[in-house]
Amino acid sequence: MTTQQFFLSGWDWDPFALAVGAAMVAGGAIADCGLRIADFKRGPPAGVVKRMGFLVIAALIFLIAAVSPISVLANGYLFSAHMMQHMLLLLLVPPFLLLSLPAVASAPTPGRSVWRMVERALTWPGLAWLAGVGAMWLWHAPALCNAATASQPVHRFQIVSLLLLGTLFWWPIVGPRTERRLMPLVGILYLFTACFACTVLGIFITFAPISVCPVYLHPMDRLGLLPLIRGDWGFTPTVDQQVGGLLMWVPACLVYLSAIMGLLARWYGSDEGEVAAAPAEAGPGLAPSDPVPENS
Amino acid sequence: MNHSAAIPVPAGYTGAREASRLYSWVATVDHKRIGILYIGTAMLFYVIAGIQALVMRLQLAAPENALISPSAYSQLFTMHGTTMIFLMGMPMLIGFANYLVPLMIGARDMAFPRLNAMTYWLVLFGGLLLYFSYIAGGAPAVGWFSYAPLSEQPYSTSPGVDYWIVGLLVLGVSSIAAAINLIATVLSLRAPGMSMRKLPLFVWMSLVTAALIIFALPALNVCIVMLLVDRQLGAQFFRPVLGGSAMLWQHFFWIFGHPEVYILALPAFGMISEVIPVFSRKPIFGYPFVAASGVLIAIYSFGVWAHHMFATGLGRTGDMFFAASSMLIAIPTGVKIFNWIATMWGGSLRFTTSMLFAIAFLVQFTIGGLSGITFATVPLDWQTTDTYYVVAHFHYVLIGGTVFAVYAGLYYWFPKITGRMLSERIGRLHFWLAVISFNLTFSVQHVLGLIGMPRRVYTYPDLPRWGSLNMLSTIGAFLSAVSVLVLLWNIVRSLRRGRLAGDNPWQAWTLEWATTSPPPEHNFERLPPVRSRRPLWDLAHPENPDPPIRGEGKTDSPYLEKNFVAITSFILSEATFFLMLIAAFVYYTLSLRLGHLAAANLDVGLAAIFTVCLLSSSFTLWRAERNLHRNNAKRFRLWLAATIALGLVFIIGQGREYLHLLYRGVTINSNLFATSFFTLTGFHGLHVIVGLTGLMIILGLAFAGDFKKGRAEAVRTMGLYWHFVDVVWIFVFSSVYLAGPRL
Fold it and tell me: A235's torsion region: left (phi>0), alpha (psi -120 to 50) or beta?
């Protein structure tokens, strides 16, 4: 099989993955409506096209991760392909999904306090950070990594868990509840430390003298791909693990970095919007309500 | 200033001692004086490092020269590099930040003035320690990055490397403390209205640099501590003969080393971003981008260190990733250059000496950046690594970049600092001499490197053109020395009879120009309102003010409590330190298959019991704090005492473990498991002891009747540190005791 043949034919239209993808899109669309109904101070329905665009991007990235040749390779052949899948599902699909939701500025009615409590608990930044970083680390414990590759139910559970944990992780950064988003400098620290944790694991995987996911050492060649992978592409198990580690080390960090860039752009961009909305804000320079710095 | 009613003046106090000039400088806690001390010390070490460079250039002026011995030459380049980076570059930039940041944000002083004084005196102390090595048996001769195993005991027997390590440790502690102080100052003491989005770019860059320091310096501290353990206690972290890893030294060093480049570059970017707009009479073009790209560069600098190691055999896969990622970092830096050019575009330029140096910075730094990109190309790197091409590259970045920016800053802020203008006439002479001599010295070194001249070798054979090119470089170096003399002459002359500056000689727009030159000890009589990024422009042009920038308030720019900010920064720094120690433990245990030693020597059950003690001490401390808030002093003291008791039990448990190991003949130099185990748990134990000491002081104060009304922040600060020590133990316990035996 040549590389071209493989990329044309190697698509795995797994009904479960397609169902998850469909549920995601439907869920996004329904949440869109639901949140907008819940939002009393709804402004003009601006940005629908942009949000639908984000939803489409999320769906496309999900398809690349879950049914494209990457998924076929991740399914027992290449650790690096698995890493690619892992990163797409954890780091890219959830933020685009969240961005596709409309921003909710106001709090919903105080009656549904159980929901509020659950939401508050789940989206507490410390927990959210642990969810994102934990999903990165735990699924690469050798036993779990092996199980997720060898057994289909575990693999399916992995896909869903990555999406959910990723959503939790990105909630404080791009979640729809704008007043619950982290303030920019804290957000930068949140993303930077996550990047740090991810880098450490990436470095470990790159240089580890042992196999992180031994199932990939001797793949069962169901599709006759091994000659292509080992021969044409030159992916020996060692190189494979190195690429996997480096993917987590360098490009994964770029994702966090792009998010930081987005955060800063949003922060500085908010100037112009506010100024445009209230051009003649000429209050006294020393507002009495401002805390006076301690001068000692 | 009036004396506070609460603190009576001691009997017999006349104030005469404080008035004495020398004493007033030694005892000062004024950020401006400390800043001047920093800058002066940095200038002193700049001259020393310059003289070292001149001696090296004399030795290299002709082929087969025998002016100095090979070992003296090795000592010179080591001391020159170490001095320029740690004793000139960092103190100079931290000094400017020290002087300017409180003024620019409209604060009275730094957040912790006494800590500030300590950081300065540590710099001087660290410098003296480093130079003491000359008397104590020979300076270090292993290069500023001190590669193992050359820096190890059998290859470097003189105590030079030990002085280098201890000196750098002192300087590292100083830098981290200064960084914490800067972060706390910017986050807590900004004037009303000075929101984070209005910060002058020099302040912003200093903040980013400080954040970089607290994450990068611990990496240096870890690796030099490990080297010290090797050298002094006979361990083998970095000695390949005994199973250690020389590569790990390079990784750990460059985790620090690459961000260090940006620690030296970002404040320079900040200075340039202040100077260029003022002398172009335009606000900076794209403030958000300049500010944001500083953050990106800082964070990204942690991800590309491996490009210093292309020649070590990382493997093709690693090379490819790091080549790509290293090229990426050029993008935010490159766009910044366009920001500065666009600021000048269409402005009414005033070519003062300061502006001339800023423009020279743009040109020279760009050249250095472009030659830097050639190193990201792996095959080119293999050809040019350890040649004079590298020397040329980083001098273009650090002299043409950082030093020229510092010159620009010096000409710009000298009037504020001293109240007198530097002479523009002499300044121009200085400028042209500096630029011409710098390019003469280092541009030819590109060629020398490309035709194969290796760096760090005391002489070279008489090959065609090598002698003449080196002679040109030496002539350039001496002209550079003349330019520095011209600068010093200008400073001395202007201090005596320079033109008086007045408050705002450049019609600049940031707050430091709103006070007198030099500023009074309390900085400001009154502050102008801060509505935009150029408060003094608004003040001077009420009919045409800048569009106001909002963003005060809790979510955008809160004024955080300074103790909280400081301890959080410190904890982040310490967390990095422990992360690297844990990584070293896991690396050695895993790569050398030492898990069986962990299994044979460690008592997991007992350790688990002591772990429970330590972790429950976090709970008792939390109870203590709750009771403090409820004003229940008795219970507060009780729970605090319980915390201390639990901590003591843990320390005794650790001591028992150590004794047990020593009894079985396992010492720190037995094998790499023992070395990394003792180093990691030893540092943790040290932190527990420091925490216990702090808690005992608080308990003592509580018994003395303190903390009755408020002042809870001392308890909270100490409490956060204690919780941190406990959390670190969770990671140490799980990697050493739980995972260790299975590795």
Answer: beta
User: Are the CB atoms for B494 and B421 separated by under 8 Å?
Assistant: yes
Cβ-nearest to A209 among B107, B321, B590: B590
B188 is a catalytic site residue: no
Find the DSSP H helices in B234-286.
246-280
The nearest CA of chain B is from the CA of A28 a distance in Å of 28
- Measure the CA angle with vertex B729, ends B213 and B617; round to 5°: 115
What ipTM did this prediction achieve? 0.84
Does the annotation mark B522 as catalytic? no
What 3-state DSSP class applies to B716? helix
Q: Decide: A206 and A246 in contact? Cβ < 8 Å.
A: yes
Output phi, psi for B420, to 5 deg: -125, 150
- Which chain B residue is nearest to residue A191, measuring alpha carbons? B299
B660-679 pLDDT per residue, tens:
999 999 999 889 999 999 99
Q: Which helix (H) or strand (E) holds B227?
A: helix B201-233
Q: What is the DSSP secondary structure assignment for residue B541, as one 8-state letter? A: -
Q: Express each pLDDT in B512-554 by its tens digit.
A: 999 998 999 999 998 999 988 999 999 999 998 888 887 655 5
Q: Which residue from A250, A271, A296 is facing B325, i.e. has the nearest CB?
A: A250
Check: CB of residue B32 under 8 Å from CB of residue B95: no
Chain center to CA of A82: 15
Q: Cβ separation of A199 and B303 shorter than 8 Å?
A: yes
Cα–Cα distance, B698 to B718 (Å, whole number): 8
* Whether A186 contacts chain B with CB within 8 A: no
Query: Is A183 in contact with B558 (Cβ distance < 8 A)?
Result: yes
- Which among A185, A192, A250 is the nearest to B196, CB-wise? A185
- Does the CB of B591 have a partner CB in chain A at under 8 Å? yes
pLDDT tier for residue A227 given thresholds of 50, 70 and 90: confident
Is B258 among the catalytic positions? yes
Contact B570, B564 (CB under 8 A): no
Of B575, B561, B572, the closest CA to residue B185 belongs to: B561
Output the pTM of the full model.
Answer: 0.91
Asked whether the beta carbons of B417 and B36 are under 8 A apart, the reply is: yes
Q: Confidence class of residue A235 from pLDDT cuts 50, 70 and 90?
A: confident
